[in-house]
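Holo prediction. Input below; ligand is threonylcarbamoyladenylate.
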Amino acid sequence: MTELLMPTEEAIQKAAQLIKAGEVVGFPTETVYGLGADARNAEAIHKIFEAKGRPQDNPLIVHISSLEQIKDVISGEMPEQARLLAKYFWPGPLTMILPKGDNISLACTAGLDSVGVRYPSNECAQRLISAAAVPIAAPSANLSGKPSPTTAQHVYHDMNGKIPMILDGGSCSVGVESTVVDVRSTPVRVLRPGGVTPEMIAAVLGEVEVDGSVLRPLKENEVARSPGMKYKHYAPDGSLTIFKGETGKVAAEINRRYDESEKNACIFAFEAHKPLYGNRRLYSLGDDAASAAQRLFAALRNMDDIGVREIYSEAVDVQGMGLAVMNRLGRAAAFHIVEV
Ligand code: TXA
Ligand code: MG
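Structure of the complex:
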């Protein structure tokens, strides 16, 4: 029912026509795959919410393929801080929250007067947005609550039969969703960490704030600045626990629990630590936080595919890309973190 096509010129044109006609298309970006529709068309936007099973109060990000196109998305001029961030980090994995322009459907922003704007660097995404010649609203292309898709096959798994077409651009290079930054206040505030790290933003603007909800669950009655943060997210079918502390002690505790577990279990650990876990079942996070980011969602999906019921994961240091990884891993684990 859903066509999976390589991004040839013909396929891009076909996808662009579908979007112009008010349909929803799956497409790659450098972060994760998106489910795209015309950001001006409320009916098309509703199809996205329906396909994902997404709560109606969670706004979508609008994607552009040139700096010029931002005038079709926001109202007024870009503030100076936004201009600077755009200069250094666009195109790339950065979404800026700005005042919404009249063109953009309120269905897209869930009724908010602000809009998240992103200019992706992925070539296929850029070609699609240019060919459609409209701003494209796109959330991650997973079913709501599930890990974001980092391959076209992940999208197919979640969306087969629900959308007409998916463009296959291979694996996403960043692997976690874009950094979301509210640039309407000073200092700017990171609402969701991603490939553009707080350190990188501070290097350009001098200062940056990271929203408190990034590394913990929302408190009761706390208002989410980024509505997406309040929902259960990325959760695998099995249970996930994170272990934090000195590497040797973490490995000893994980091994103890693994050996005691009567369920189908798996360990997430960095490549260099593999020898500490003997021949227990292990999914490598690679060499560093960037590779952990790139692999994490595929790892979580793989656990569901092979029926793993208990996952024990090493924690990641929250510097640089590590913050984005711990934000996703923490949510996937419902913040079940053990200090050893
Ligand atoms: O990397 C990405 O950003 C991917 C690709 C496809 O571009 N998209 C993505 O979209 O992750 P989504 O819908 O899964 O996540 C958007 C996040 C949500 O947490 C949402 O609440 C927040 O951005 N957001 C969107 N518009 C907002 C706004 N106006 N104010 C505050 N938060 C906003
Ligand atoms: Mg998402």
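The chain has a mean pLDDT of 96. That is the main takeaway for now.
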